[in-house]
């Protein structure tokens, strides 16, 4: 018995050491991407539709795993109804009608999948492409920093008074709940609209902090993968893969936690207007927002941002690689224990931000791992970042810098079926001194 106890204690001690070593970037004693994620969705056969979803869902409704649903046009869950989706259910968005699903303010979605049986939203095209259909929109009653309510009416092709009412979001209920999204995949969403804008794979409009958002993967989005406009969304174990625009976008006073989440970018998959892993803004147009209200504030912990380049230097020279993180005026970011690997540079701050102690205390980077980036933290359109390097390079922030290939940095990112983006322990060399080559711009 004594020997058994000693063995257990040794095992636990070894596990704690390993877990501690992996504290930067996405963490977990096991690879939590296994079973529910899919990095080659175009090879999946989800079956033919057996039922159609169209128009308004005005009463409590359950979608069953035994059926395959075709989402036709703009579908709204209204009248405070709850849409329940069983684990393993497949919902296919129609390409021709630019299908979308909107959970309106006051309504709820309970899409509670399981690791071995995720809920799937995907495209109906035989050859699937980013932006085949609209996406999933969830609208709540939490605050934004806008004057009046927000609206997503521009997303819909047919407008009438009912559509306008269903498109509104925002209120004063911090603890509002729009339901549950857990173990959900959203594939090939992000359709381009007539005004030139794009749907997001998952758009959260003023979602309250009681909404459960865990283990959600958005892949091949033609627009943003995840977008939060206001609200207090708490997001855990998110995965963005091959998004054309931003992986995670927060705007209009969102007060959000983004924890243990992943974004994988590719240099040839991006929008010409700029694509980042994380974009934090407080407004698009100043006249839209009330500056007496809180600006956007994001706590980002244990994130891994990877640019999967075959030839980083060449692709930077061709203008194919952007920054990983962009922080706008009047926005706050507290980012720690995260990995940024292979970007140009790692972070850009909007040129409207005055570089002084007050503003830098609102934009925090601590215990970070900057790897193989051409420069670290810059002000927009400014090639001199000495002040920022001196500030964030201070040993008190515990930021470290390295220059390693992605294959050496992560456990197994080349495995297309079961990739593992946790840090490879004992194979990387890090320092809190900025590598001169990484400073070179």
From TrEMBL:
Domain of life: Bacteria
Name under which the protein is recorded: Right handed beta helix region
Annotated source species: Algibacter agarivorans
């Amino acid at each position: 018995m004594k020997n058994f106890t000693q063995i257990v204690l040794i095992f636990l001690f070894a596990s704690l050491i390993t877990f501690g070593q992996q504290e930067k970037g996405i963490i977990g004693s096991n690879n939590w991407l296994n079973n529910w994620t899919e990095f080659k969705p175009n090879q999946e056969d989800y079956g033919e539709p057996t039922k159609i979803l169209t128009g308004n869902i005005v009463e409590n409704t359950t979608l069953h795993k035994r059926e395959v649903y075709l989402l036709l046009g703009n579908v709204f869950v209204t009248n405070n109804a709850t849409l329940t989706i069983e684990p393993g259910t497949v919902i296919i968005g129609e390409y021709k009608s630019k299908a979308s699903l909107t959970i309106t303010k006051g309504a709820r979605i309970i899409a509670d999948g399981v690791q071995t049986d995720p809920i799937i939203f995907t495209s109906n095209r035989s050859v699937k492409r980013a932006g085949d259909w609209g996406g999933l929109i969830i609208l709540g009653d939490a605050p934004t920093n806008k004057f009046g309510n927000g609206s997503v009416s521009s997303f819909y092709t047919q407008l009438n008074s009912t559509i306008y009412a269903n498109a509104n979001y925002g209120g004063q209920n911090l603890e509002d709940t729009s339901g549950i999204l857990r173990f959900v995949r959203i594939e090939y969403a992000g359709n381009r609209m007539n005004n030139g804008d794009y749907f997001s794979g998952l758009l959260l409009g003023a979602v309250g902090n009681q909404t459960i958002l865990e283990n959600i993967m958005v892949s091949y989005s033609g627009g943003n993968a995840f977008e939060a406009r206001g609200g207090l969304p708490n997001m855990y174990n998110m995965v963005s893969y091959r998004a054309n625009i931003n992986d995670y976008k927060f705007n209009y006073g969102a007060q959000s936690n983004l924890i243990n989440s992943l974004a994988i970018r590719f240099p040839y998959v991006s929008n010409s207007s700029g694509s980042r892993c994380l974009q934090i803004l407080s407004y698009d147009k100043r006249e839209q927002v009330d500056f007496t209200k809180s600006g956007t504030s994001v706590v980002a912990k244990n994130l891994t941002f990877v640019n999967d380049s075959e030839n980083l230097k060449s692709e930077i020279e061709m203008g194919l690689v952007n920054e990983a993180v962009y922080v706008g005026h009047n926005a706050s970011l507290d980012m720690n224990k995260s990995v940024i690997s292979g970007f140009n540079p790692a972070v850009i701050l909007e040129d409207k931000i005055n570089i002084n102690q007050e503003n830098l205390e609102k934009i925090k980077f601590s215990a970070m791992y900057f790897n193989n980036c051409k420069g670290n933290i810059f002000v927009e359109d400014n090639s001199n970042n000495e002040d920022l390097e001196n500030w964030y390079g201070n040993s008190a922030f515990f930021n470290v810098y390295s220059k390693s290939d992605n294959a050496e940095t992560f456990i197994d990112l080349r495995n297309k079926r079961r990739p593992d983006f946790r840090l490879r322990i004992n194979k990387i060399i890090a320092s809190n001194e900025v590598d001169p080559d990484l400073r070179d711009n």
